[in-house]
Amino acid sequence: MAYCLEDVFRLVQKPGRYTGGELNSVTKDKEKVAIRFAFCFPDLYEVGMSHLGMKLLYGLYNSQEDVWCERVFMPDTDMEELMRQNGIKLFGLESRDAIDTFDFIGFTLQYELSFTAILNMLELAGLPLHAAERDSSYPLVIAGGPCTCNPEPIADFFDLFILGEGEEVSLELNDLYRRHKSQGYDKDKFLKEAVKIEGVYVPSLYDISYNYDGTIASVDACDGAPAKVKKRIVGDLNTAYYPESFVVPYIDIVHDRAMSEVFRGCIRGCRFCQAGFIYRPVREKSPEVIDAQSRSLCESTGYEEFSLSSLSTSDYSEIERLLPMLLDWAEDQQTNISLPSLRIDGFSQELAARLNVLRRSGLTFAPEAGTQRLRDAINKNLSEEEILDTARKAFSAGWTSVKLYFMNGLPTETMEDIEGIAELGQKIVDCYYQNPNRLKGKGVNVTISVACFVPKPFTPFQWEPQDTIEVLQQKQKHLRNSLTTRKITLRWHDASTSFLEGVIARGDRRLCGVMEEAFRRGCKRDAWSEHFNLNTWLEVMNDLNIDPHFYANRRREYDEILPWDHLNYGVTKAFLIKENRLAHESRTTPNCRQNCSGCGAAGWGKGVCLE
Amino acid sequence: MGERGLPRMKEVRIRFRKIGRAKYISHLDLTRTMTRALRRAGIPIWYTEGFNRHPYVTFASPLSLGFEGLCESMDIRLVQDMPMEELVAVLNSAMPEGLEVYAADQPVMKAREIAFARYRLTFTGDIEKIPDFLAQDSIIAEKRSKKGVVRQIDLKTYLEKSDIHIDSEKTELEITLPCSSSETVNPMLIAAAYSDYVFKNNTKKAFCDVSRLDLMNSQGCSFK
User: Fold this and answer.
1) B36/A302 CB distance under 8 A
2) Which CATH number does the domain housing residue A602 bear?
3) Fold of B3-107
4) What's the distance, CA A19 to chain centroid?
5) Where are the alpha helices (DSSP H) in A148-207?
6) Measuring CA to CA, which residue among A229, A135, A142 is closest to residue A188?
7) Cα–Cα distances in Å, from A316 out to A322, A517, A527, A593?
8) Is A22's Cβ below 8 Å from some Cβ in B?
């Protein structure tokens, strides 16, 4: 005899991950809604519940009276085992109904290593993995999020992808679906209509052919699908939907606080950073809107902390006007404002003093590279003097620990650049001891975290070979040997996970078979280091005659057809080629506010492009 | 004025039920949940002093994860007095599903006076052998102390004094067990002992729902 769901809750660790019913979660009468939507995050509850995009779309969907959106997360191993043993299908947290009866199953693609978790969740839901094997009786399986800018490695498993920002296109898709449902829904007919909505990519309507050398020969759109699918953006964030409340979890999650989005996009154009290109153009919210939204969120959730969310938040043009507005009520209500990696030197004394009243997080910098030459090559416009100056000010104000983020394996990197990382760390340690006002008897702690660079689509480095695992490990070893002080703690990212990420990030549709086979052989939690197993992946690729180095470690020619070339994120290939050439000459490009560099995003005529 | 020149604050004991989905909120998470509810309700709670200021909230007796509680209580301090009926109403409107405030009053007893707790155990599946199980001369369970010392106790001594209702669908057991800092007996020991009794080879577990009905002092008076 099998256990029921309630019994299973008694047996698992942290049942709060699966029980639902949290404050502000939405329950509707399933008989009275037209569309049931399962919003799936292919990671644990604690990770998925920290994600702003999910909160936003959950609120948006549920703001429509006839739509019921529920949350679904990847169960942990103990829960998964019990679900499989007892025939419990993947269910929505709100209704606890199995999601295979829903209208839509929507995944958010946040990172490449979550792709096999998606397959696992589809299997737990009782769905055939391949879109082609799911007829009109199954839910539509769709996805959005940053990794849809190259969804080819999982294209076979999805009915459609949403490119870019989902607020408007989701509602348009719902409208289309309602119409089709009232006239007898047929999946193929629906998909052929859906491609007429800008931002909708239906992978089954594109035929890919390959050259003998394995590169792509052509991508052909069929049945009226557009030759290039353009991503969608929301033009005006001040009037765009933003949730008035968040679901407040019971269990401790990674980011357990209210979050206010201050802008989208990034003016910087760091050449390694995918987010910096795919979210263009920069569009800001006004301080008044942010203030009202923050306040409403704190009141509806009771959160004791809120953060401002965006890429490079210190670039918000009205931060000096926004912070006093927020502080005025936050101080009264004992609410903390958490500011991610802001430049403290930019603030007035008075503002800095008021922020100091609140709990402060550690000081972090992301120089990304150890020498000015390499920072110029990656267009990270942060000088050593700026870093040291800020560190000095921070030490004078009583800080004793600094975190520095770097990357190994950046294009044009040499061992000299690696040594530069250690030298910069040492200079910061020296700054601390040169400060006459430092706290006596208290040492400094500098943490250097080094990630491995993974070339990503829609960046100027999309043609670059990724360093092999061996080279990355040599560089890590060299860095360790270059450090001479125990005041510096060194952490680095595992090169083997970065290698797999590199394979998938620039992969094509032939990787779909690899994904499925790796999943069959037990890879389903690759993003969790304790479950990651590169050897299984290598065996699978070997068995299927797929060469991982073709994807990760090969330099592409500028004229090669890339697997994501039929997707248009607004930034032109000509601009990316120009940026790639500048990188090899260690020449920088000004940020969007200094000077427009003509990336192509101005075509939307929104945000910073109009300033 | 009270100690350290602070205005004298009013101590309030808030009584609530923790039922339904809320039974899966752990004790640690309950503190956070309640703090946020108090903030949403706008109740003028006292914050602790010092660098890491947080609202003062303390619970009489932690409730195990998965148990319902019908007589739970938490103490707060008000920096500004307010009518108790109003406090109950506004706090209730700010509570998540399964947490229900039913009273607020001034504390009479100290939490450390709690000596016993009364529970209701409801078995709904595999209940046929419960009468035989209860008819045993002794029901030995192993109890692990915080220090890891295992000792054997006879559950029969408690079960003898319990009220048992058996019908075709379910079996209910109401039982009083020690619940103090010096000695606590977890009602799940009974469920585990029954599980071992029915499924000797451990192929399955017998479950029961547990509700904590009351907390009492050593004289058997309800915690006030």
Assistant:
1) yes
2) 3.30.750.210
3) Alpha-Beta Plaits (3.30.70)
4) 26
5) 166-182, 187-194
6) A135
7) 9, 45, 32, 11
8) yes
Structure tokens at A459: 């960046």
Question: In one letter, which amino acid is B4?
Answer: R
Burial degree of B203 (CB within 10 A; 0-12, 13-18, 19+)? exposed
Contact, A205 vs A544, CB < 8 A?
Answer: no
Written as six digits, the tokens of A455 are 């070339």
Distances (CA, A) of B126 to A42, B50, B140, B165, B197: 37, 54, 21, 15, 11
Buried b / exposed e over B59-78, threshold 16 CB at 10 Å, is bbbebebbbbbbbbbbbbbb
Residues of A with Cβ-Cβ distance to B38 under 8 angstroms: 302
DSSP H or E stretch at residue B159: helix B156-159
The DSSP 8-state label assigned to residue B6 in this structure reads P
Q: What is the pTM of this model?
A: 0.93
Residues forming a β-bridge with B18 = B69, B99
How far apart CA B192 and CA B208 sit, in angstroms, is 10
pLDDT value of residue A359: 45
Per-residue pLDDT tens for A69-106? 999 999 999 999 999 999 999 999 999 999 999 999 99
Q: Is the same domain home to A189 and A282?
A: no
Residue A320 host element (H or E): helix A319-332
Task: In whole angstroms, give the CA distance from residue A160 to residue A173.
Answer: 11
* CB pair distance less than 8 Å for A9 and B21: no
| CB-based contact B29 A10, cutoff 8 Å | no
For residue A294, tell me if it sits in a domain. yes
Beta strand A140-144 pairing with A104-108: parallel
The residue to which tokens 């480095």 are assigned: A461
Please list every residue in chain A whose beta carbon sits closer than 8 Å to the beta carbon of residue B25.
16, 250
Using CA atoms, how far residue A95 sits from A4, A59, A68, B145, in Å, is: 15, 16, 10, 39
User: Could you tell me the residue range of the domain that residue A52 belongs to?
Assistant: 5-211
Among the listed residues B134, B138, B123, B131, the one whose alpha carbon sits nearest the alpha carbon of residue B188: B123
Strand B208-217 vs strand B10-18: parallel, antiparallel, or unpaired? unpaired
- Continuous segment of H or E residues that includes residue A405: strand A401-408
User: Residues of B with CB below 8 A from A11's CB?
Assistant: 205
Neighbouring-strand partners of residue A401: A445
Give which of A7, A244, A246, A250 to mutate to test B binding, by max B Cβ within 10 Å.
A250
User: What are the start-end ranges of the H helices in A408-530?
Assistant: 415-434, 469-482, 495-505, 511-520
Residue A548: φ, ψ to 5°: -60, -30
Q: Into how many domains does chain A fold?
A: 2
Same structural domain, A207 and A271: no
Return contacts of B159-163, CB within 8 angstroms, 24+ apart: B159/B134, B159/B190
Residue A161 near residue A143 (C-beta atoms within 8 A):
yes
For residues B129 and B166, give the distance between their C-alpha atoms in angstroms, rounded to a whole number: 11
Give residue-wise pLDDT tens across range B164-204. 888 888 889 999 999 988 888 899 888 888 888 888 766 77
**Residue A150 clears pLDDT 90, i.e. is over it:** yes
Domain co-membership, A21 together with A75: yes
State residue B2's pLDDT score. Answer: 44
Residue in A10, A23, A251 closest to B207 by CB: A10
